[in-house]
Amino acid sequence: MNEPQSEAKAYTIRLELVDEPGELLRALHPIGENGGNLLSIYHERGHITPRGHIPVEIDLEATPKRYEMIVDTLREEGINVIQAGTERYSESLTVLLSGDLVDTGLSDTLTRIRETTNVTIADFELSAPQGSNDISSGRLRLGIEEGKTEHTLSKIREIAVEKDIRVIEPLSGEFA
Fold it and tell me: Which among 14, 74, 77 has a CA at the least distance from the CA of 49?
């Protein structure tokens, strides 16, 4: 299978996993075995789907043939694939959040950002030097669809106002 790596595309696979030790690792195995390049994983044990499983979103890069093999292998191994398809996360957006991030529900904040903007959370870093009972800051890096920067920032601003969190946005225009 000598496909040119330049044919690789970004894909998102949404899974529902049973809450048992080793299930996430079992779901990741077909990606590596079939030549996929893992970009990000959004796994939140605190949320349960209506079927009582844990939702997991995996962003990966693969050639179309390898991607098909990954999805087929996941299904063959009994992993519940909810959605599999090409995503258009062609741009990256980084914002800083500052405030009482922990006590205002950090998990809820990230989930709402992801669900209301249709982004992928590529990375999140939290800094709470005085512990969780004081002001903290977070760097949030998102994968977004081309042309959706302003929409994404607008939704983040709405959530931030509701939770009394400050948003430090990237510079726009020619200096960005």
Answer: 14
Chain centroid, CA 7 distance in Å: 23
pLDDT digits (tens, 9 = 90+) for 72-100: 999 898 888 877 765 555 677 889 999 99
Give the bridge partners for 85, in sequence order: 12
- Gyration radius (Cα) of the chain, Å: 18
Sign (positive/negative) of CA torsion 139, 123, 169, 110? negative
Instruction: Indicate the Cα dihedral angle 48, 50, 56, 62, nearest 10°.
Output: 180
User: DSSP string covering the chain, please?
Assistant: ----GGG-EEEEEEEEE-SSTTHHHHHHHHHHHTT-EEEEEEE-TT---TTS-EEEEEEEEE-HHHHHHHHHHHHHTT-EEEEEEE----EEEEEEEEE-TTTTTHHHHHHHHHHHHT-EEEEEEEE-TT-TTS-EEEEEEEEE-TT-HHHHHHHHHHHHHHHT-EEEPPP-GGG-
Structure tokens at 66: 């390898």
Q: Is this structure's pTM higher than 0.70?
A: no
Q: Do the Cβ atoms of 9 and 86 come closer than 8 Å?
A: yes
